[in-house]
Amino acid sequence: MLELEQITVRFGPLTVLDHFSLSVPQGSTTGIMGPSGSGKTTLLRVMMGLQRPDEGRILGFTGRRSAVFQENRLCDNLSVRANLRLTAPHAGDTLLEETLSALGLDGQLHQPVRLLSGGMQRRIALARALLADFTLLFLDEPFTGLDDAARDRSIALLRRRAEGKTVFLVTHSADTVQILADQVVTLRQC
After folding, report:
1. 166 near 67, Cβ under 8 Å?
2. In 10 A of CB 64, how many CB atoms?
3. The pLDDT value given to residue 1
4. Could you tell me the CATH number of the domain that includes residue 48?
């Protein structure tokens, strides 16, 4: 069980999370929804260990982490292959090509990332996260900028690669949460 107990995060006078608690079974997918500014990304950052809460305890969040952030955080001057190898250094080209093909990105392995469209870059960011050897996966709006076909392909790959792993998915899409999440948490502004 992964647990957040009475987590409070403040930025100056602004309280973003106020005594928030959550228990999550390992191996489940938790959808996190709420209006903009309700603390969804802050909550992910706390769970990833990138943000310290002002109050509260975090229990059980051990293991190998992987993430898709709101920004793609790709290295524009590197090829797709080099970007994917940042999280999967031992992955062979066959696995990389299969992953790209599953996302509708056939033949892009050696392309410089800077030459790809925004939607293609988003799928590369997702592929990079899914190729990592993770037990905990944090996804912050992972399907932003994707058309329906690319979104569907991405969801299918996510389901395969994250099976049995613990996933936290921030999204504004009720459809996506309905498809992927075992439980849903809705944040409200403090």
Report:
1. no
2. 11
3. 84
4. 3.40.50.300
